[in-house]
Amino acid sequence: MLKVKQIPKNERPYERLIQYGKEFLSTEELLAILIKSGYKNNNSKMLAGEVLSQIGSLGNLKSIKYEDLIHIKGIGQAKACNILAAIELGKRMNHTQVQKEEYQIHSAEDVYYYIKDYFDDKEQEYFYCLYLDTKKRIKRTKLLFIGTINYSIVHPREIFKEAYLSGANSIIMIHNHPTGDVSPSKQDIETTDKMLEVGQVLGIQMDDHVIIGHNNYYSFFENNQLG
What we know:
By secondary structure, the chain is an alpha+beta fold. The chain has two domains: 4-100, DNA polymerase, domain 1; 108-219, Cytidine Deaminase, domain 2. It is built from nine helices and five strands; from the N terminus they run H-H-H-H-H-H-H-E-E-H-E-H-E-E. A five-stranded mixed sheet has the order 2-1-3-4-5, with helices on both faces. It is elongated and about 70 Å long. The mean pLDDT is 85.
């Protein structure tokens, strides 16, 4: 059986995460990184596959207990603790997000502090929408587009479909400028005007379009650019 060091570099979990990003790793590869090493004739990736096979499904992993893990051949105390710690972190992050979804928006500054962390280290533009209820509480946060923002890419169908699905009363559009300059481009202005027009036809209010930069933001509402 191959040891991890004998696997070609571009196929090893650590190297794949560094080169391609965590999103491109399989569940087995992510678990292999937590496990770190295997045992005789089984590398960490194979051991991860055995763990997933024995627990039945990924959903069962969130409720697995220490005793269950250490009874799997190759999983000792350290590996079991690594897995359980990662699961608990995931649960706590999810709990935090649930609380965050009840966040109430009173200003563009609220929008900025709510979402600025979403854009950390992003090297291209990410376009989000916040979907709000009648009390301006966030019902849903949705990433809709990645890439240069313009009307040909940011289609109102996707934006307002989510508004109807979430039962939103109004929306706030948000995207980042990786350069850090938050001045709206011509395309930003054209897109805002178009979405405002579509929202008026559909009866869904657009409260703002906020551009996020490096520790600053630009609000179309605050600058009287919403109609």
